[in-house]
Amino acid sequence: MPRPPARQGAGGLPGPEGYTGPMPERLILLTNDDGLWAPGLAALAQVASRFGRVVTVAPDRNRSAISSALSLHSILRLHALGEDRYACDGTPVDCVLLGVCEVLKRRPDWILSGVNLGFNLGEDVFYSGTVGAAFEGRLQGARAAAFSIHPKGELALAVPWIERFLQRWEAMELPPNRIWNLNFPQDAPKGFRLTGQDSRAYHDIVERRVDPRGTPYFWIGGDAGPTYAKSPGSDAEAVLDGWASATPLRLDLGCPEILARSKDFEATFNG
User: Cα–Cα distance between 231 and 268 in angstroms, integer?
Assistant: First the structure.
């Protein structure tokens, strides 16, 4: 696909009146939670580079399932490992903040997170460092998206569809404080599906062990994967049926159906 023209400026604002020269190139910040050397991040960088200048700030090791954690009580170190490529010893959200405030010193146009090896469907988004980084990107004022793929998926099959999405997503503006959460199937997608969130049951276990000194320690996890409800119109239904799911997510977790019951609230709590 041909590379689209450079965006007119940060935030999509037009240039000065009467100015006819070239506009600034898109600035794109990349991160993930699988670590700087993850193949999914390399694939995303390959695609994103066709749309602007890509700067990568990613964790120096795997930081999965860390959600939107911030390193408030420890120092952070940032290491330049080549042109526009940095490793950070913090969380994915730390990487976004350092990328915006220290490396770029301004808001980028896009903040992209992934490609995560393993789905982020349904309630997974509450645990995911991949999605947490995209949420932080939106909080920083950038257009943001998270990308994940089937744990046995082939990145090469997803790359053309990531490119198609990035080529067109600016044409579908989301309301404020919204991001896109993309999940790709194991094989080549049949196309895109606009989806909601599914529900899933994770078969977590807490395993208790004892170290050589007799002190107990614990592992949280489980070998059995999640069981998805695959409800109609959901992300899990789409991706398990071979489609790429595109799910708009919002930072506002309020419950409008309860807020609409203000009279019931008043009667219950103030009556």
Answer: 34
